[in-house]
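seq as requested:
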Amino acid sequence: MYNNEDFLNKKNKKKTHLKFLDKFSKSKVYVSKTTGLLFHDDFKSSEKVAGLWSKNFKKNTNVKKGYYTSNNPNMMARHVYCVEFIRKNIKKIKEKSICDFGAGEGNLLKYFNKFYNHKNLYAVEHSKKNCEIIKRKLSINKKNIVNKSIENSKYFFNRKKIDIGIMTWTLCNCSEPINVTKTIYSILKKNGYLLVAESSRILVPFKKPIFNFFGSGKGYMHPWYFSYNSLRNLLITNGFQLVAKNDFRNENDLILLFKKKNKKQKIKIDNPKKVVKFMKEWVNYSKKIS
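struct tokens:
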């Protein structure tokens, strides 16, 4: 089984503890000396983390208490962006099946369903409460709403294949991102697509103060902080080819569209020293505007 040791390639504990970030984060922050990836290492099992996230969905977002809902203007705008990004870059989308992996309260799928009358939709969501919300919110086959973690959803899709998979602000919270990626790969049709959306924060112009970057919870709730290179590397080393990207350097988010297609592609590793320098500069920048 693939695990975090494989992902980080840190068999000899090749990581640097960024002690200057200890006052901003409840968990220690590290940079892999091999991959340049920023991460926490207090991992918990995938099911444990999925269960904790299920409990954190509330009617109103409360950053201090760790509560979250996508029923806010910011996330609504992000979801519309992702929907339109897919529609722009994939032809004949009305004919294709779409699955949102980590669907939350179903707000992204709602735009396909309500605005474009798309019925061939699937949702994978660990929270039973959220699955009930999705059933009420969407006019689709209720059997297409899968109350499981992403890794365990492959048994539901055993005889089915999906044209387009979506993961929005989900992969960074997964304990085993390689397992998640491989699961979705197995569910997608040949030449199927996967859109992955994350926040664009690492090795780009500063877009917010670092004081609230790490949130209020422990690192196992959000173990990974992807740059463009680290996110791209994760997907292309597991059978995907990048086919479209947004202007992530200037925009708030990192939106990448991949195709299920094994093709030799060049890996681009972030320089770990540059990542450390970037984080120090971010701290200094944040002090000046506080």
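The mean pLDDT is 89.
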